[in-house]
Specification:
heterodimer, A: 650 residues, alpha+beta, 29 strands, 34% helix, globular, B: 564 residues, alpha/beta, five-stranded parallel β-sheet, three-stranded mixed β-sheet
Chain lengths: 650, 564
């Protein structure tokens, strides 16, 4: 008979056991990028299957170009920063040392990180922070350190979802809690350490995990202990007895409850973040500090050394090594797994979901496994199908069968391969047909989710989201991510499919359209019609944001902007923008049309205020003429002036 | 007390509760003790929002209250001062002067100003011009639907007509729009809308626009509980308010004046109350000579008699009195041979009887007060004259007489306006003559009043060319004929037509509402077009759309369900 997928036993052997827990390594993408030697680059990947920022190590080294002129090639490599998708598709190249970056002497990059909005945060040695969007536009730029800081440099920096913490050369901490504002407020945390007692490692405990609700910074010191610093001061956790050597690498688990420490003598120690219980001590038999130590999900730690593959350590000291043929690699932590990126491939290292394990474990007698077997037999026209099915639940109520169906649906949800998804789903429907009453919501939701996931996982899009990550990220944010990658069409299709509002997508599309160089010479009217035609099916939606882009603070196309504003349903927005564009007459017209006397008054008042500083008679005449043409406006102005006159103020 | 709203056809208590909660939220948002400064136009309204105003206010930290502009404010010990005002320029000046005085005596501090029902930019600007904007916090208290009775919700914006028609300041329409929007959030989208007059049209466009702006496709809409919204611009029916009403409630309003659902009368009218309060609390100061009486559906007797023609009122009240007396008498007569249960039953009725008796007494007193005027010859003459004018007979001679007799100017002007409205303007020569007479008799100040009346269209000079009147029929004349506004014989005892509320004149507005339901406005297109335009009709669907500009004529739009 024909076989769409290998028999289950073969699949299960791809799993790696870490004690009782099974892990699987799943290839996701062949990388499209042309980076031959990852070891020469500093990489930084965003969670939720996000983009990867890549910069040549020369930009991060102490050697500054002005001191020793390096070879042309390396200076070229060091002066640009690339952002790739998870599948290695180039999104943008940023010339970060270009004259746009005003700071003198090209400071080196200390740290890179991604914010929750998938913006790239770059922290430089001199305290400069630059936030780029994934296409390299500067979103935010500021300096962490106060102007009086003098020679203090940033030594290390940890960027977390919403903010960052930086360690300065005098062993103090500067933190920013919210990078999502126009004017971030860096503040200092006292560590009570100094240059003579340097810090050996640093980790951040995000505010949602701390009891105080403040960011806490965990610092490893030379005295074999760990300090916890927050805005109120620092506290020594007195770990001398539990840790034999200084901690050189730390990582906080995705749930914030555990801290993994790598000590100088090669021990991996996992301890609760309340520092009360030690969970694990594991000897790696090497004194070399790993390049990376991160969590893979919530119950294993992944370490890797240069050209030594990936070492995975489980909660009870079980371990497994993935050699990766000595290739240079980079591991990106995710909430439920981790991504391993090499110069040629992107792989997912993931705990096998319990439903999949129950179905696919060799010799499994779980009802779900029997249902799956029964379905496979049924597909092949084997009479065993019925027999297998009868063994589930053995005649009593459907409970076991229903559970088996749920397990199949859940297994389909966690699958990346569409043909496997189909097989699990078919098995589920096979079982569902035999349940007396089964709520199909879960099935429908999973199918819908898988369609979306399969679409965004395509290499051209490059978002290898797992089902769990999708649930955490929510569909709305996924749409935002797609918009940010300029996949407007896909975003629209998904909005249609999931019945989400398309307004956001269309607005962004229109703004990008206006910014694109291809429309520069297009007549205003034509461009307006193109935009209107695309946006019309969405019904009433705000055009203010689009008009604002067209106007571009006075540098853009004012006429086009007013044309677009004509479609704005919200009169107040319309009038205010027109006023800011100095289109007083039109603003008054719109205000009068809106029949909102407050708006009319606003126009009159601001136009008049502008006139007061202008001595030109012609301008005044123009104003009077404008008011005169609108009797409603005249009446309103009269009410106001009557009062002013009675005040004795001419 | 204010109406309990328990008999209302739709749940009006929800609105009251919402507005009460909003006020409490405002009070809670300010820490510490509070002194409220109330716009006189708002102070009485609070009792319609808060059933127990004193308690609610003290519970929320209010320690003092004063009228806007009152100087005693500066002596207040409260930590915060909260102003509740109507958004009028004049009120802003009072606010400013109060604040200045306070700053002088209490030192600098911050003040909260709440605009009811909405803030306007003009007011903000005036406060800035007066130099107090920097120390005030401006917010809104959206008190835009006041349920006065089971079947009456009002905005209580008494200056609206003057502002819109005379000053050209239409900001009060904002309140109307907001109130309709609020109605629709409480009781669902109103499927049918009918509107007549220019401001009605404006309001329609405004609230449709507001719906478009606030539209959320997925938001849940309540089930529609209101079938039809009829908007009538006062300009369409200027006649009705000028005509003397003849029902009990109408006359109370005419002669005593109902304000915010209550009247203020001499305490003697309230009857026994006076003695009772003395018994209860001898040490208390004597009650003020003026007391408030709420007129609403709480009073079962009032419900019965409020719409009776004054002619029927006397006999009806007499009957009621006899009935109550009968109850007592029946009891007294059988006193000796009654069982305990019978006595018990009677005793249980006593509170009800007592209340009925008090209410009856009160209404008898009010009726007596009214009769004093209505039985006089002047009153009779007045409504006879009105009737003549309504039928289209000019009574210029009478107006001249009245001016000569120096009768109260308000009466003269009222008839003058009625004359003008019913006959399509005043004859040119009469206009000039009466105008001169009025100014000479009542003083030059009348010049401004007359000008204003002319501006809003209450009086008009009939245009003549070469001595001939341009128009021979008046708008009102048309409507009178086609809508049957005058009924020759009305049966005041068991009325079959609304014309019984006056001397046989059916108010135009009432007729408009009547024909909007049966047989529908379309049947009267010609008449409606002769009234101030436009008359429009449209249906509302769940998905809002802006009212097209072209919708200026009477049209039956798609989607409008036929009226029941």
């Amino acid at each position: 008979g024909r076989r769409a997928a290998p028999k289950c036993g073969a699949m299960a052997t791809d799993w790696h056991a870490l004690g009782d827990v099974k892990y699987r390594k799943r290839p996701v993408y062949e990388m499209q990028w042309q980076l031959s030697e990852l070891g020469d680059y500093m990489l930084c990947g965003a969670p939720y299957g996000g983009s990867i920022a890549v910069v040549h190590v020369s930009a991060t080294k102490q050697t500054i170009t002005s001191l020793s002129p390096p070879s042309a090639a390396s200076s070229d490599q060091g002066s640009t920063l690339q952002i790739y998708t998870s599948s290695g598709g180039l999104l943008t190249t940023i010339a970060w040392r270009s004259p746009a970056w005003k700071s003198a002497g090209s400071p080196r990059i200390v740290s890179m990180g991604w914010s929750d909005q998938e913006n790239l945060v770059l922290v430089l040695e001199d305290g400069g922070v630059v936030v780029y969007d994934i296409f390299g536009a500067v979103v935010l730029q500021f300096n962490l350190l106060p102007a009086v800081a003098g020679n203090i440099r940033v030594e290390d920096c940890q960027i977390w979802g919403a903010g960052l913490v930086a360690l300065t050369s005098n062993m103090n901490i500067w933190a920013v809690d919210n990078l999502n504002v126009e004017d971030p407020m860096p503040y200092e945390m006292e560590t009570q350490l100094n240059e003579n007692h340097p810090i050996t490692s640093m980790a951040v405990l995000q505010p949602q995990f701390t009891s105080s609700g403040n960011v806490e910074v965990i610092l490893g010191t030379q005295e074999n202990t760990v300090l916890v610093v927050d805005v109120n001061g620092s506290e020594d956790q007195l770990l001398h007895e539990r840790i034999q050597a200084p901690v050189t690498k730390m990582a906080v688990a995705p749930n914030g409850r555990f801290l993994a420490c790598f000590t100088e003598n090669g021990m991996v120690t996992v301890i609760s973040t309340s520092f009360t219980t030690k969970v694990l001590d594991f000897d790696t038999n090497t004194r070399m500090t790993p390049l990376q130590m991160i969590w893979c999900g919530e119950d294993s730690v992944v370490l890797h050394w240069k050209r030594a593959g990936v070492l995975m350590v489980g909660p009870y000291g079980h371990w497994v090594n993935h050699p990766y043929d000595g290739q240079a690699l980079y591991v990106i932590p995710e909430a439920d797994c981790c991504r391993v990126v090499t110069s040629t491939r992107c792989e997912l290292l993931q705990r096998v979901p319990s439903a999949t394990e129950a179905i696919r474990r060799i010799g499994s007698t779980d009802p779900s496994a029997m249902l799956y077997d029964a379905w496979e037999a049924f597909e092949e026209g084997d009479v065993k199908a019925d027999e297998n099915l009868r063994r589930i639940g053995a005649g009593d109520d459907d409970l076991q069968l229903a559970e088996a169906v749920s397990a199949c649906i859940s297994a389909a949800g966690s699958e990346f391969d569409p043909s496997m998804q189909k097989r699990y789903l078919k098995a589920a429907t096979y079982g569902m047909g035999l349940c007396s009453d089964f709520d199909a919501t879960e099935f429908v939701d999973t199918c819908r989710k898988l369609r979306v996931l399969n679409d965004v996982r395509r290499p051209e899009v490059g978002l290898p989201l797992t089902s769990q990550q999708y649930d955490r990220l929510t569909a709305e944010v996924l749409v935002d991510r797609l918009i940010a990658r300029h996949h407007h069409h896909l975003a629209l299709t998904i909005c249609d499919f999931l019945k989400l509002s398309k307004q956001k997508v269309l607005t962004h599309w229109a703004c990008e359209k206006l910014k694109s160089p291809s429309v520069r010479d297009m007549p205003d009217k034509q461009l307006r019609d193109i935009i209107r035609e695309k946006l019309k099916p969405c019904g009433t939606m705000s055009y203010t944001a689009i008009a604002l882009i067209a106007y571009d603070g006075g540098r853009g196309r004012k006429r086009l902007s007013t044309m677009l504003l004509d479609y704005e349903p919200h009169a107040a927005d319309q009038v205010k923008l027109l006023l800011s564009m100095n289109e007083n007459e039109l603003a008054l017209q719109k205000a009068v049309n809106s029949m909102d006397s407050d708006l009319v008054f606003l126009v009159l008042l601001s136009t008049e205020a502008r006139l007061r500083n202008n001595q030109s008679q012609a301008k005044k005449q123009e104003f009077f003429h404008m008011v005169y043409n609108h009797p409603d406006a005249t009446a309103l102005l009269k009410v106001y002036y009557r009062h002013k006159l009675s005040m004795g103020d001419p | 007390m204010a109406s309990l709203l328990d008999q209302a056809p739709i749940n009006l208590q929800a609105i009251r509760e919402y507005e009460r909660a909003e006020l409490v939220d405002i009070l809670e948002s300010v820490d510490g003790t509070k002194h409220l400064v109330l716009d006189p136009a708002l102070s009485d309204l609070l009792s319609h929002v808060l059933l127990d105003p004193k308690r609610t206010l003290t519970d929320n930290g209010v320690v003092g209250m004063s009228k806007l502009g009152d100087s005693q404010l500066s002596r207040s010990q409260a930590e915060n001062i909260l102003f509740f005002v109507r958004p009028n320029v004049d009120q802003m000046k009072l606010v400013a002067s109060n604040i200045m005085a306070c700053r002088a005596t209490r030192g600098s501090e911050r003040f909260n100003v709440y605009f009811a029902p909405h803030k306007t930019l003009v007011c903000e600007q005036v406060l800035e011009d007066e130099g107090v904007l920097d120390c005030v916090e401006l917010s809104e208290y959206q008190l835009n639907l006041i349920p006065l009775d089971d079947d009456l919700i009002s905005l209580e914006l008494d200056r609206s007509f003057r502002e819109c028609k005379l000053d050209g300041d239409t900001s009060s329409l904002q309140a109307v729009t907001q109130s309709i929007t609020k109605l629709q959030t409480f009781y669902g989208i109103i499927p049918n809308v009918k509107s007549i007059g220019p401001l009605g049209r404006t309001v329609c466009s405004k609230f449709m626009r507001a719906r478009v702006e606030a539209y959320e496709p997925d938001a849940k809409q309540p089930v529609p509980q209101i079938d039809t919204l009829v908007l009538i611009d006062r300009e369409v029916d200027l006649v009705s308010p000028l005509v003397t009403p003849l029902t009990y409630e109408g006359l109370i309003d005419e002669l005593i004046g109902i304000k915010n659902g209550a009247i203020k009368v001499d305490s003697a009218i309230k009857g026994q109350d006076k003695d009772k309060s003395k018994e209860d609390d001898a040490a208390a100061p004597p009650p003020p000579s003026m007391v408030s009486i709420f007129l609403n559906a709480n009073d079962a007797l009032y419900v019965e008699i409020r719409d009776l023609n004054i002619e029927q009122l006397g006999p009806c009240l007499g009957q009621k009195a006899k009935l109550i007396r009968g109850h007592y008498d029946a009891f007294r007569a059988n006193r000796d041979n009654q069982t305990i249960t019978e006595i018990h039953d009677f005793v249980k009725q006593i509170p009800g009887l007592k209340q009925n008796y008090e209410s009856l007494n009160q209404h008898i007193n009010i009726t007596e007060e009214l009769k004093r005027t209505t039985d006089g010859g002047t009153f009779r003459n007045r409504w006879n004259t009105e009737r003549a004018l309504l039928e289209g007979e000019p009574r210029y001679d009478l107006l001249e007489d009245m001016i000569a007799k120096q009768e109260p100017p308000i009466q003269v002007l009222r008839l003058l306006c009625l004359q003008s409205l019913t006959s399509g303007g005043l004859r040119s020569n009469k206009f000039d003559f009466l105008r001169r007479e009025i100014i000479q008799t009542y003083g030059f100040e009348m010049l401004f009043t007359l000008n204003n009346l002319e501006r809003v269209g209450l009086i008009r000079k009939r245009e003549t060319t070469m001595g001939f009147a341009m128009e021979t029929t008046s708008t009102f004349g048309n409507a009178r004929k086609s809508l049957g506004l005058i009924k020759e014989n009305v049966n005041v005892g068991s009325p079959d037509d609304i014309a019984y509320v006056s001397s046989g004149y059916a108010p135009l507005s009432v007729r408009l509402v009547q024909i909007s339901i049966m047989p529908g406005w379309t049947a009267y297109t010609a008449t409606l077009q002769s009234l101030p335009r436009p008359a429009i009709e449209f249906g509302q669907r769940n998905e809002p759309e802006e009212l097209p500009q072209a919708l200026a004529r009477l049209v039956q739009q798609q989607g409008g369900a036929p009226p029941p």
